[in-house]
Write a structure and sequence with these properties.
Blueprint lengths: L1 H12 L1 H4 L4 E12 L8 E3 L2 E13 L2 E15 L4 E16 L4 E17 L6 E17 L4 E15 L5 E16 L1
Antiparallel strand pairs: 1-3, 1-9, 2-4, 3-4, 4-5, 5-6, 6-7, 7-8, 8-9
Length: 182
Amino acid sequence: MKKIVVCLLLLSSTMPVLAAEGGYLGVSMGSGKPGVTPAALTMSTTSSFIYGGVAGYQYNKNLAVQVQYGGLGKATDVAGNTSKIDALSMTAVGLLPLNNHFDLTAKIGIANAKTVTSGATATNLGTTRTGLTYGIGAQYNINKSMALRLELDRYAVATSNAAGVKTKGNATVINLDALYKF
């Protein structure tokens, strides 16, 4: 529920900027696979269904900037500890139009990933990591107002143990974004 509220607040705060032609809003869903270990040394599962929101502005046919908030997945170790990771990112998106309906995309930017770990041997351990995010994808422009974008993204993430030692990792995310263009 918190994630939905944050997405709505983020999207509503960007509405004045996006009201001009070139703005877009969207929702995303997909699969996240964080490469982190919650607390014990052995992983049992490392992927989950994720969702989030995106807001952006496309300056021309080849360049856009966007803000995105969403999940990066959950990792569960054999002891039953679970790390849940969310991220807020700001990226530059390059678009290469192939024709009127298809674009190839690439993006690069910065993301703040927040990890919360809880479970049998870990209780509300949290940490953040700000780092590089990047990705590639393809966009299908249904019409002038609607588009679908499939992306493969990479985020810098981290976990922390009870002693406060931070372990760095990466998360891989596959998203399908449904975009509404103004």
